[in-house]
Structure formats: C-alpha cells, structure tokens
Amino acid sequence: MSTPATDTITHDLGAPRARLTAGEFGSVDVEGLVAVIDSVAARASALDRNEADLRQDIAALADLGLFDVDRTPVSVAAAVIEAVATESLAVAFGAWAQRMTAAYLRHSADRSDAAARTYRAVADGDRPGVTGMAAAQRQVVGLGNVPISATKVDGGYRIDGPIAWASNVYPDSTIVLAANTEDGRSLVVAFDASAPGVEIRNAPDLLALNATASTMIGLDGVVVPDEQVLGEDLADFLSGVRPQFLVLQAAFCSGVAARSLTEAEGRLEGLGAFYSDEHADLAARHTHMHSELHRLGAAPHEASLKDLLLLRLDGAEIAPAATRLDAVLCGGMGYAQASPANRRMREAAFLPVQSPSQSQLRWELDRLGVAP
C-alpha cells in the first residue's frame, strides 16, 4: 500500500521555523501552539540552566491535545514536536517521552480499566510519563536482555532491577517498562514512581537537557497488580508502537537541525562563505529528512522498518552536524555556553547516543542488508 503524500504547512509559525514546510496540524489550535513556542523560546536559556520547570510546557502542550492519542494522530504530533524543538530540544524531548507513555497506555486501555485511567491522566498532562523502554527496544532486536525481572506474587508481579536511564522522572510520574519472567515471558507494566520499592537516584550533571528530569531508577520489590500489566508479549506490544516511537524521535531531531540551518544561513558571507557548500549539503539532507518525516508520519504503520530506521539515523547524523556548523559560524560566541547556538550543539550531542543509538540503528540496518 502506498504511503500518502506529504501535506504542506500553510500556517505561519515564524521565521525560525521557515524550513518546516511539510506536515499538518489537524485540530491543533495553531495560535495556541505559537504561544507555547514563544513561551518556550523566552525560557529556553533558563531551561538549559535547569532553572525553569519543563512541566509547565508539558501542561501547555497537553492543553493542545498533543498527548491525546485518539485526538492527535502521529502526523500532527510530529509536526508539533518538530516545531517545539526549534526553540528547545529539552521541551521537545520531554514531550516525546510524555506522548510515548500515553501511547503505551492507550495501546492497552481497551483491555484494562487501570490503563485507561492512567492513560487519561498522562494524556491530560496531570501526570508526567516515563518511558523506561530502551532496554526493551534492544531486547526485541537481539541486543541483550532487559535487566528487570518480574516474579509472580499473589495478585500481581514483583519487579526488581535497574532502569539505566529515563526522563520525566518525578515523584508523581507514571513509569512504563518491560520485565522478564522466570518462565520466559516479557511483560510490559505500568506503576507509580512513588510506589514502595522505587528509588529515584541522583542524576549526574549533563552536557545539556538537565531540565528533562533524566536519571537512573532502582526497583526493589515493586509490586505491580495484574491489572497494571499492559502486555505479556513484548515483541507484539512494541510492534504496535515502535513506528510512532521512531517518527517522533526523528521529529525533534529535524526541528533542532532546521533552526541551526536557518541561523547558519544568515552567516554565509565573508569568511562564512567557505562553509556555503557544507551548509548546502546539510540543507539538502535536511529537506529530504523533513519530507520523509511527514511522509512516514502520515501512515507510520504502513512504513517499512528500513525507512523508519533510516529516518531516525538521518536525525542522529544531521542534527549534530547542523548544530556544529551553526556554532562555528557564530565565531567566538559559539563557544559561549549561554549562546543559543552553543545550547543547540550541546543538546544535539545527545542524539547519536539516545536509544536506539546511532550504533544500534546501523546494526539493525546492516541486518536488513542496508548500507546507510
């Protein structure tokens, strides 16, 4: 079945988003979205210093319906997250984690009243959502096992093990993760971050994205009732959500790259002219990625795994390169930590190592016989 053609954005989102020409906003209030983006822009520096609360932005995006999976399709969510990333990758990343947690819960909401209730709280922005599924993504493709065990107890499961890294981690968060049972099953479960046995550990200082409340979590005897088991077949569960997972990751990669390319374009005179060819090459690659993002986002479940992996790999490569060029063309100010170009470069440095990492993406593509 063919993938629908890419729509063209007709709304004016401001000069910093001039490169975002594809996609659609559906029922999203575009004036409200612009107001949210303007608020993020005004607080981007404070967010970078972890002196502003990202949950304010999550609540504002929830009001626009970003996390309501029934109301806002993947295509629209991609356009919103991409636009937000032009001002702050931290906010876009937090929004991705919130949306994916909502998607996991919605995937099971028709079969579980508990999942339906929790989904509503996450979709409405009343509860932060933690997607602790990086290890699960690796397990299903054959890159090791989830280090979390699920032991059957009366009325549910005892969950033990470490979450190496997760974001949106607050005491009132909802956590979704995978755990392996002794009899060889892989469950997907949801529980509160405040549940007995959950240890939210102190996070190290990061190069950027500290406002995303990212840290390590220890689980020691966390009891999850049967009604909070979202699925008992991890591979099947992820097959229903992984296309969205990859598309929305690519969206924030595209957004930060677009902003850096726009800023760099204004500095291609004088000595900057020596970078014109590099800029043109990156701009062409980004234009292709941006188009593919919205082509695949229009029907993610019809997209091939190869195309989804290539899209996400493009994001891991183009965004760091574009932000570096942006910083170079800023001259000395590009080295100043408080400058927007420096912030974007530090933020984008995370993208090649975010799960699925650049290495994992290349490994998966190699298994498909694709040379990226």
Automatic annotation (TrEMBL):
It comes from the Bacteria. InterPro entries: Acyl-CoA_Oxase/DH_mid-dom_sf, AcylCoA_DH/oxidase_NM_dom_sf. Signal peptide: none annotated. GO terms for molecular function: acyl-CoA dehydrogenase activity. Gene3D superfamilies: Butyryl-CoA Dehydrogenase, subunit A, domain 2 (2.40.110.10). This is Acyl-CoA dehydrogenase. It comes from Dietzia lutea.
